[in-house]
Design goal:
2 copies of one chain form a homodimer. Helix content of chain A is 44%, strand content 11%. The first copy, chain A, is an alpha+beta fold. In chain A, 51% of the residues are buried. Strand 5 of chain A pairs parallel with strand 1 of chain B, so a sheet runs across the interface. Chains A, B: This is NADPH-dependent oxidoreductase.
Chain lengths: 279, 279
């Protein structure tokens, strides 16, 4: 092994951090890979140190090893280290300083332009292009790939945060990165070493029984379990001096008013201009 | 550690399996987690043995540990072991026998119904629901979660295959699994132990320099590299007695005629009926 895996907590402690000590799921098999994933937290404060030589290539090898529908590989990744470019990307993302600060930013691209080049070279009509299904496959495959890259990065001791705000202005992002038509950045990813302060804490999630159903969808216990999670998240927020709203209130803030979309209700129109019809 | 991680090949061999020996990327850091991901192959032949006790719960703990936009957790998972249900799902998927055969099938759900329940309970209008952006976030977050579950499963020695064909008839799938409106299965996942024959071989992917761009998108070397990949994939197809088409030909078969979509060009209309407007 070329690099040590960072230390991870034992199983019960890892589960308690993720769910709170009162609602531990009946998790079974455990190993260092699972422990690494359980220890995930999104990091928004990075040291200036570059990522190790070959780290990006190891991450992309993991990304390309993820499943891809019919082996079509409808995605690309674009690595940005240029400070001037990262500054513009941070601005597009509404002033997210960690994009400027992280040593490596990866743009994950739903990429149908490669297919268009094959279509052009062979003069074969590309009938399956303009559909929601096609855009979905490209976006989902990009997400599967990116998540493998994240797990690889975290297994090396690096930290990450996804940047959905690339979709605030996908046309400007595409212009900046020189994308051809039919290629769109679906999200970005900051990669680097966390500062001591930025390491943060594992964020609790909904009790497992809220998101995991067996044989049939069943939300009968959801309300009570959500109340327990609200209490857990209020404690988390208090520890981190965040606005002490419950999770339920956060959901309402995010879902209620259209202004919470930061303009992303125009995504479909922007995609159409970029060659994705999304019928 | 409760379970041993299965044996994985050393770095150079793992990279050679994934890319072919002639186009190895300059991968750097390496460890057992990365090796596990590099060893991925989609498996379509399963032993009848059930998954170990707690394996599902460990997979879902990993899934919930993946990043989720604004901590919104807009996804659910539904575990199916009932043979009668799996038989119907296999039929919907165009007769994919491995869905019947695998001991555990997980349906991954873009789930806005939980938000709708919160909206209803608090009488708060849900203005951000009907947009493509919202459906994208739910689908991408489901994909990030599912990929962590896959990595967890593979780290225990289990194998998997994603089933995109749940989107052939999302309404019938939703009816079968008792989903409420505003919840849709975006893809399925078979989980189990591979038969000896079903283990297969790591599938080569496009050379890393085709999918990884630096600072600006650059497809100038793509055509030559694609030709090399066509040759690599022809060898792979011959070894596996598959139709010996090149990868380029497979792309054309999949992209050219609309019939290759198996009816999924109707996805947007189906989603509208299920409460996802996708404006």
């Amino acid at each position: 092994m070329d690099s040590l895996t960072p230390a991870t907590p034992p199983k019960t402690e890892a589960l308690a951090r993720r769910y709170g000590a009162d609602v531990l799921p009946a998790a079974g098999p455990w190993n260092e890979t699972i422990a690494t994933m359980l220890d995930h937290r999104s990091v928004r404060s990075y040291k200036p140190d570059p990522v190790p030589a070959g780290a990006l290539e190891s991450m992309i090898a993991a990304a390309q090893s993820a499943a891809t529908s019919s082996n079509m590989q409808w995605w690309s990744a674009l690595a940005v280290t240029d400070p001037a470019k990262k500054k513009v990307l941070a601005e597009i993302a509404g002033g997210q300083k960690h994009i400027e600060q992280c040593p490596l930013f990866i743009a994950w691209i739903a990429d149908m332009s490669r297919n268009q080049r094959i279509s052009n070279a062979t003069k074969t009509p590309f009938e399956t292009m303009p559909w929601l299904e096609t855009f979905m496959v490209a976006s989902i495959d990009a997400a599967l790939a990116a998540q493998n890259a994240v797990v690889a990065a975290e297994s090396m001791g690096l930290r990450t945060v996804y940047i959905g705000a690339m979709r605030n202005d996908p046309i400007r992002v595409a212009d900046l990165l020189g994308l051809p038509p039919q290629a769109v950045v679906v999200f970005g990813l900051c990669v680097g070493y966390a500062t001591e302060k930025g390491k943060g804490e594992v964020k609790p999630r909904l009790p497992q029984s809220v998101v995991l159903h067996t044989e049939r969808y069943d939300a009968s216990r959801e309300e009570a379990l959500r109340a327990a999670y609200d209490a857990e998240m209020s404690k988390f927020s208090a520890r981190h001096e965040l606005q002490a709203a419950t999770w339920t209130q956060r959901v309402l803030n995010r879902l209620g008013p259209i202004k919470a979309m930061n303009g992303r209700e125009t995504l479909r129109a922007a995609l159409a201009k970029m060659g994705f019809e999304v019928r």
